[in-house]
Structures are given as C-alpha cells and as structure tokens.
Design brief:
Blueprint (H helix, E strand, L loop, with lengths): L31 E4 L2 E12 L5 E9 L2 E9 L3 E9 L1 H4 L3 H8 L5 E4 L2 E15 L6 E9 L5 E8 L3 E10 L5 E4 L5
Antiparallel strand pairs: 1-2, 1-11, 2-3, 2-7, 3-4, 4-5, 5-10, 6-7, 7-8, 8-9, 9-10
C-alpha cells in the first residue's frame, strides 16, 4: 500500500559507448588499454571543474611497475597527457617558499634536463568521482619549447603543493581499449 515511500533500487546504467569501437573519451574505472608498450588499468576517475561549464577528466592508471595519470581534455579537439607525480622539492627546494611569498611560481623552471615555460594559471575544483566532495585548488601549467613535455604545479589550501611531469599523448598511441572489470 505504501510502496511509493520505498526507495527504488538503482538500475544498472547501460554503457554509453560502442564496445566495438572504444575511444579514449570512453575510458572509465576498470578499463584496460595499451600505451608505451604496457597494458594499463584505470583504477580511479577524477573530475576537474574549471568554471564556465568546462570540465576535464583524469584517470589514475596502473601497470605492473608504475602508477601514472592520464588527463583527457575535450574542447575543440581532444588533448591527452600522461603524467607522474614528482616531489616538488626535487624540482627546487625553494619553490614552495617562493610560491607562498610571490603567490605564484616563477615563469621558467629547469627540471629533468628541460626548460619549462609557464603557459597557464587556473583556479578550479577537483573531485574523486567515487565521492561528491569538491576541493578547490590553483594550477600552474608549464610546457617545454617543443610543447610536447609538461610540468604542472598545484596548490591545495595555504601550504600543500603537488607537482607532476609528463608529456602530450597522441590519441593513436592509446590502443586495445576494452572495458575490463567495470565497477
């Protein structure tokens, strides 16, 4: 009689992709793909809100011997980057103090045999797609002179900093995508 008060069970959503023609934009947790001669599994999904209704996705990916992050930005075209975390103190031990004092990092950074030039500064919000909490942060993105290699610095709160280094990935470099164990 009072069935309308009962919560309805969530039904499994049908996949929103063609399993015979999977693309990078179809990636979700549990998917497996090949990149750089290794098979990677998507272990976590993250979303960035950059304001003005612009969102990007990032995936934590793991293979046998590494953990990395695959960032997918869909605007006029798809831009894909793969990065790994680095200790910001390995870039420069004075960098954190400099950012706190100047409220932004320097325009150029030398690291890992390359010179990186600051190309963008953006404030945004971040969330792990397994939850609903959004965390604000500031990001500074750097590219080398070729535009192929990147370095990113993020500030979370007053004094928490993260850094990552990586490269641009052409979509064709990612192959053999399949759903794997969707969770």
């Amino acid at each position: 009689m009072f069935d309308w008060f009962k919560k309805k069970k969530k039904t499994e959503e049908e996949p929103q992709f063609d399993v015979t023609n999977l693309k990078v934009t179809d990636l979700r947790r549990g998917f497996i793909f090949d990149l750089e001669g290794k098979s990677w599994e998507v272990t976590k999904e993250y979303e960035y809100d950059w304001g003005d209704d612009f969102f990007t996705l990032e995936f934590q990916i793991k293979c046998v011997d590494a953990t990395a992050y695959l960032h997918v930005e869909e605007d006029d075209e798809i831009e894909i980057t793969i990065t790994k975390e680095v200790d910001i103190n390995n870039i420069d031990k004075s960098l954190v103090d400099e950012i706190i004092e100047q409220e932004k990092p320097r325009r150029t950074i030398e690291f890992s045999g390359r010179t990186f030039f600051r190309k963008a500064e953006a404030a945004g919000n971040f969330r792990d797609l397994s939850g609903n909490n959004w965390d604000p942060f500031i990001s500074w993105d750097y590219r080398d002179e070729t535009g192929k290699y990147l370095l990113s610095i993020e500030q979370w709160g007053e004094d928490e900093f993260e850094a990552s280094i990586g490269r641009v990935v052409d979509e064709y470099e990612i192959s053999n995508i399949f759903p794997g164990n969707i969770k």
